Amino acid sequence: MRLAAVLAAGSLLLLAAGCGGGDSGSSGTSSADEWADDVCSAVTDWTGAISSVGSSLQEGGVSEESVNDALDQAREATDTFAEDLRDVGKPDTEAGDEAKQTLDDLADELDQGRDEIDNAVEGADDLQSLLAAVPTVTQTFTTLGGEVAQAFSSLQQLDAQGQLEDAFSQAGSCDELENS
Prior knowledge:
By secondary structure, the protein is mainly alpha-helical.
């Protein structure tokens, strides 16, 4: 249950962003607690960055430069999130390989979302054309938030012994997500 709450909080934070790393190594295995902490840290960093982008646009006004800066920050945050998920490695649990694959699949979805954003703003050379791309960008981030939630739902389903759920409940960075 706590895992679902943490993940739902992360997804809700992303969706409320207003725009509408792992250190284990990719081939390494880490304890379930370290792995969960790395995963939650990556989610927290990404949702915080996306939220910050949305806030800066709301506070700073909308100009061609501010929209371009916001899009660059959002794309960079998404790239970093995908890299962080790939770098997390796998948890030292029975479901470790499947958990790693789930995060790799999510990273691929993030890459695809970034490509959708790039396509939406390709050729946008003035504020009007950038603003015309905003609904697509917003929808893409909403979709990515759903993908994050789905990945964590998948993690919960493959964790028959509750090892990952316990790890998520003990990870300090997951507390940050749950409390936000």
